[in-house]
Design brief:
The complex is a heterodimer. By secondary structure, chain A is mainly alpha-helical. Chain A has a domain at 37-98. Chain A is 47% helix and 2% strand. Chain A has helices spanning 30-33, 44-50, 52-60, 68-80, 82-85, 89-98, and one strand at residues 18-19. In chain A, α2 runs antiparallel to α4 (68-80) and α3 (52-60) crosses α6 (89-98). Chain A starts with 17 loop residues before the first strand and ends with a helix. Chain B is α+β, with helices and mostly antiparallel strands. Chain B has three domains: 11-213, Collagenase (Catalytic Domain) (3-Layer(aba) Sandwich), CATH 3.40.390; 228-436, no CATH class; 440-616, no CATH class. Chain B has helices at 11-29, 32-43, 55-71, 74-79, 119-140, 146-152, 181-194, 198-201, 203-213, 311-315, 328-338, 352-368, 380-391, 393-398, 405-414, 426-431, 440-453, 461-466, 469-472, 481-512, 517-532, 549-580, 583-608, 613-616; strands at residues 46-48, 84-89, 98-101, 104-108, 154-156, 163-166, 228-233, 240-245, 250-258, 270-277, 296-303, 319-327, 343-347, 371-373, 435-436. In chain B, the strands form four sheets. Chain B has a seven-stranded antiparallel beta sheet with strand order 14-12-11-10-9-13-15. Chain B has a four-stranded mixed beta sheet with strand order 1-2-4-3, with helices on one face. In chain B, a hairpin with a 6-residue loop joins β7 (228-233) and β8. The radius of gyration of chain B is 30 Å and the shape is elongated. The chains are: A mainly alpha, B alpha+beta. Chains A and B meet through β1, α1, α2, α3 and α4 of A and β11, α10, β12, α11 and α16 of B.
Chain lengths: 99, 618
């Protein structure tokens, strides 16, 4: 009855109800990771980085796939920047991918 | 039966206060006569049985009775019989300070010896303790109520199978309280009456006593920090920090439900709670729903501090059940991108005070709970239900006895405690963060965008992801920005699949070589994780209940110092383990990294170009 089922913490996956690692996974955004502007990012940048995957899906699907992180970033960009208020969601999503 | 610790109340000062308060009240309300009558009545309640006492001891005993009487809150006094005899004896078992039997109290005679350090506090504690027993047995029966047992930590088993033992072992003021609910009542009554820190260390219990006993007359009004301390995982792997959560910043709490997967241990789905925390500076309101980077998830999981886990131990309580406090975005990525499971986030219908009391309970569980995980009878759903029952009295009364995440969701919906309407419009639900779709839901759509532009060497997305990375490489630079963005996301999916395969290979390697440097370093890191998941142990020798300012500072310092070591250690371990992978797997991971770098640069470039007019018009 005893058999090893899963997991090691490297590249780790705490599964439903079972976890070997406190923090984590390697599930972070690879788009973010491959960003040339890596280094110490904080606050706003972090939020925008976190939205990169959602922005990619939004751009790829021509606006059909709209995730909450993108939505949050759009709201944020428009709060911060008057010029952003004039731009469409798709334009902002592209701008986000261009960062 | 009682422990001597923490703050002692100066008797003269206390009496002065009480007198002054009485005088003022009397003058204001003109009910002086009534009050005097009441005070006189109360004075007769505690009667000294002087048997066996020297004159000096009699004097100390009389003083103690009179002091304690002035310290007792009204509700407790009223629940006592008209007279309670208090005697002092030498024949109590060692370590027993007092006994209550048939409405009479016997206390240890040594406690009258003021040469012993802490004797004054000990005899007061003992007397309050026994008086609480007398009142509880005489008329009030507080300790039998369901609410009390929920609060005290005798948690309900699912399906109305009674209650388990009290597993709130960490940071207890006195382990004796765990004996049974009546002792818990008596031990905590000592602290409520005599200990000025009680209100901040166990706020929910203090509120319960306040409601049933009334205000302890001699203690200063509490000035608690008002924040709830939680040791949380940071976004960076291996890092932890102290979150000082202000309940007024929590706009809502959602039931976060991860859909089931084919894995045997996740088929039922997973129950969690999501704290919708507003970003600093934003007034709590619906806008907080999109402050995703500030949201936190409370997730009960079995903690397996080892390379492998066993089904058997999962079924039989071989693992501790721990409350993980995680960033929402990490949880979303874990489920939707790695496990490819959808997540529904359904708002619980709670008012402000219910949110505050749920968070207080969460913190008590976080710092004190040391339960075991049973895959069937004490799993994530059962733990979440117990947290909700104890944290939200209304749900406790209704009862949430459920074994499964789905069952708990149904039960909450039936109680009208869950807003499922948020899922009515799927697109809206995803945009507003009520539903996080599995990344897999979009793979075919993303693939089709690229496939429409070029003759990709794969029929569908499965075949595309199954190709070696090198064979995908030539196709990555041929499409427009839409195709590139889609291929980028698919390349990430390919990376995660490759990482999962590597993980299995590494697990076998680590198990085969338990003494290797990598295995040892992994075990050490897991041990650190385990300590953080039982934060009460970090402060084992100080205080009880919720850590106060100084203890919090100590935890924060310890977490920062340990994180500074564990973060690079996890990174180093990753590098080290990656180097141990079979060459073919290493090559594949390297190829995928290259593909991702190429695609990342291309997407950035293409997105920066002026968009076609069609898109601009949107």
């Amino acid at each position: 009855m005893i058999r090893p089922l899963l997991l090691v913490a490297l590249l780790s996956l705490p599964l439903a109800g079972v976890a070997s690692s406190f923090a984590g996974t390697s599930a972070g955004s690879a788009t973010g990771a491959s960003s040339g502007s890596s280094g110490s990012s904080s606050g706003d940048d972090k939020m925008v980085l976190a939205a990169r995957d959602d922005a990619a899906a939004f751009v790829a699907s021509d606006g059909q796939i709209r995730g909450a992180r993108l939505q949050a970033a759009l709201v944020h960009l428009r709060e911060q920047d008057a010029a952003a208020q004039q731009q469409s969601d798709l334009q902002l999503a592209r701008a986000l991918l261009a960062r | 039966m009682t422990s001597a610790s923490s703050l002692a109340v100066e008797p003269s000062h206390a009496r002065l206060n009480a007198k002054r308060r009485r005088a003022i009240t009397a003058a204001t309300h003109g009910v002086a006569l009534l009050l005097i009558a009441y005070a006189a009545h109360a004075a007769e309640r505690l009667q000294l049985d002087p048997t066996g006492l020297s004159p000096a001891q009699q004097q100390v005993a009389t003083q103690t009775l009179s002091d304690v009487q002035s310290l007792l809150p009204d509700g407790l006094l009223r629940a006592l019989p008209a007279q309670v005899q208090v005697g002092w004896r030498d024949d109590l078992p060692a370590n027993v300070h007092g006994r209550a039997f048939a409405g009479r109290i016997a206390l240890r005679r040594d406690l009258l010896d003021d040469d012993v350090a802490g004797a004054r506090r000990a005899r007061r504690s003992a007397l309050v303790h026994e008086l609480t027993h007398v009142a509880d047995r005489n008329s009030a029966h507080w300790s039998r109520s369901a609410r009390w047992r929920d609060l005290a930590g005798w948690q309900r088993k699912p399906w109305h199978l009674g209650r388990g033992d009290n597993a709130f072992r960490d940071r207890s003021p006195d382990a004796y309280e765990l004996t049974d609910p009546a002792e818990y009542l008596a031990v905590n009554a000592e602290h409520f009456v005599l200990d000025a820190e009680f209100a901040c260390r166990r706020p929910a219990l203090a509120q319960w006593y306040q409601a049933h006993f009334g205000t302890p007359p001699s203690l200063p009004a509490p000035h608690c920090a008002g924040t709830v301390p939680l040791l949380q995982a940071d976004a960076e792997e291996g890092a932890a920090s102290l979150l000082q959560l202000d309940p007024s910043r929590v706009y809502a709490v959602d039931y976060l439900f991860a859909e089931g997967s084919a894995q045997p241990m996740s088929r039922w789905g997973h129950s969690m709670l999501r704290l919708v925390i507003c970003r600093p500076g934003r007034a709590p309101g619906p806008d907080c729903r999109l402050d995703l980077e500030h949201h936190r998830v409370l997730s009960f999981r079995a903690f397996v501090g080892d390379v492998q886990i066993s089904n058997w131990r999962g079924l039989t309580g071989g693992y501790p059940s721990r409350l993980f406090v995680l960033p929402l975005q990490q949880v979303v990525d874990e489920y939707t991108k790695v496990e490819l499971r959808g997540l529904a986030s359904l708002p619980l219908q709670l008012d402000r005070s219910e949110i505050a009391s749920l968070l207080e309970r969460t913190a008590q569980v976080h710092w004190s709970y040391d339960g075991r995980y049973y895959f069937v009878s004490n799993n994530c759903a059962v733990e979440t239900a117990k947290l909700l029952q104890a944290g939200v009295p209304r749900l406790g009364e209704a009862g949430l006895a459920q074994l499964s995440p789905r069952g708990l969701r149904r039960r909450l919906a039936r109680l009208h405690a869950l807003d499922e309407q948020v899922l009515a419009d799927p697109a809206q639900a995803q945009a507003q963060g009520y539903y996080f779709a599995s990344a897999r839901d979009h793979y075919q759509q993303l693939f089709s965008v690229a496939a429409a532009q070029m003759a990709l060497p794969a029929r569908d997305v499965r075949a595309w992801l199954a190709l070696p990375a090198q064979q995908r490489a030539p196709w990555l630079l041929r499409g427009d920005v839409r195709a590139s963005a889609g291929l980028l996301l698919l390349e990430q999916a390919a990376q995660r699949r490759a990482e999962l395969r590597s993980r299995d290979a590494l697990k076998r390697r680590l198990l085969a070589d338990p003494d290797s440097a990598a295995t040892r370093s992994l075990r050490a890191l897991l041990e650190q994780s385990g300590q953080w998941l039982r934060p009460g142990q970090l402060l084992a020798d100080t205080g009880y209940g919720l850590p106060q300012a100084e203890e919090q500072a100590e935890v924060a310092r310890a977490a920062a110092a340990a994180s500074a070591q564990t973060v690079p250690a996890w990174q180093a371990l990753r590098v080290q383990l990656r180097a141990q992978l079979p060459p073919s797997q290493q090559r594949e991971l390297d190829d995928i990294d290259r593909n991702l770098a190429v695609l990342g640069a291309r997407v950035r470039e293409q997105a920066a170009e002026a968009p076609p007019t069609g898109a601009a018009a949107r």
